[in-house]
Amino acid sequence: MIRLLLAALTASVGMIGMIAIVLIGLPFWVVAMTTRALARVLEPRWLPARTFTEYEPLIGWKGRSNVDAHHHLDDVFHVTTDVEGWRGQTTLESSDIVVLGDSFAWGYGIDDAHFFANVVAPGLTVKTVGVMGYNLAQEFLWLERLAPRLRGKLVVWLVYLGNDLIDTLLPHKQGYTMPFMRRLDGAGTWEIVTSHVRPAKWVHTGRYGRIYYETLAKYCTPSTQARREYSATESLFGRAKRVCEGAGARLVVVTIPDKAQLSPSGHQLLMRHRHDGEGLDPDLPDREIRMICDRLGIAFVAGTSWLDAADYKELDVHWNEKGHRRVAELLTDLYRRNPPAAGAGAANGGRASVGDGD
Fold first, then answer.
1. Helix (H, G, I), strand (E, B), or coil: what is residue 225?
2. Fewest CB atoms within 10 A around its CB: which of 188, 217, 245, 328?
3. Other beta carbons less than 10 A from residue 103's beta carbon
4. Which of 157, 148, 154 has its CA nearest to residue 341?
5. Which whole-number Å values give the CA distances from 255 to 41, 56, 74, 105, 289, in the listed order?
6. Which residues of 73-99 are buried (b: 16+ CB within 10 A; e: fewer)?
């Protein structure tokens, strides 16, 4: 009997203890659940990247017009586009500088408030013509289409070394068809192919790396230079120069390094993706593109003279706020030293007095 009473007493004490623990913890649980619920209500709803683009019959896809939404990369960021689908607070007609490119020109991963086109020097206006995933052929087609609206402007073409050169030779990106460059003969004659572009997605069975490290390593290896990629790039640059001259605009090519080119750890990463025993030269792509621009009489700036690894996001290849400020400074410097006037492109032979760095 005594044992039963002791057991009952022990159970009662245990039950009381559990109730006490629950009562003590209940306020914390209520606060946590309330906070989580409020966060879901108050935080902006973000949309996937594909919702920011739509099919375009010739170019493959374009920026969706009148977007006012959020997206998530390393953090939630706010994006707006104009009636034509471009970012930037000004119109194309009222801009001093037009920036041509891909996701770097689009400002992937950054709020409108910190986007480089919106933080240039006061009195200077920038419009970006770029969309995530574009290759150089797509960017050129936009330059050609918008040429009648470019008179008197400085056109800055951003070329991302991580994948732009190889993408320009591919007919699709992860199944989404896009214009590409195709060689017509062995003499370096190239054409832009658009006849395959369709709204329906192809069945995609290939493997795309995050930034094509193997190809970038090849570009940085002296004995394995990708002559096809550079030849196609030179063909596009030559066309772009003629378009800008005819439009009375001035063209500058600016390379955007992958952050793997900007640090010792990044160099080691590229070394691991080589397929031969040759040395690695991270500056080699810039020298190759500089030679192309010199042959064509196009102004050139190596992005490595303005950007370093600290300008990029920690877990992504795109720029952080500091990087966008640096690009805004670069654009401001380019315009300060080369203010285009109507017809300046033709009058100056398309060559601007642009130097590297500051």
1. coil
2. 188
3. 18
4. 154
5. 42, 26, 24, 12, 8
6. eeeebbbebbeebbbbebebeebbbbb
pLDDT score recorded for residue 92: 96
pLDDT of residue 35: 44
Of 51, 115, 42, nearest to 78 (Cα)?
A: 115
Query: Please, what's the b/e burial string for 165-182 (b: 16 or more CB within 10 A of its CB; e: otherwise)?
Result: bbbbbeebbeebbbbbbe
Among 41-55, 70-84, 248-262, 271-285, whose mean pLDDT is lowest?
41-55
pLDDT at 212: 74
Strands 60-63 and 250-256: what pairing? unpaired
CB atoms within 10 A of CB 37: 10
Gap between the Cα atoms of 101 and 124, Å rounded: 19
| Whether the Cβ atoms of residue 116 and residue 322 lie closer than 8 Å to each other | no
Q: Which residues pair with 193 in a beta bridge?
A: 180
pLDDT of residue 345: 38
CA distance 153 to 6: 92
**What is the Cα 237 distance to its own chain's centre?**
19
Residue 61: which H helix or E strand, with range?
strand 60-63
- Asked whether the beta carbons of 61 and 131 are under 8 A apart, the reply is yes
pTM of the shown model: 0.82
d(CA 52, CA 34): 32
Tokens for 171, please give them.
Answer: 């007919």
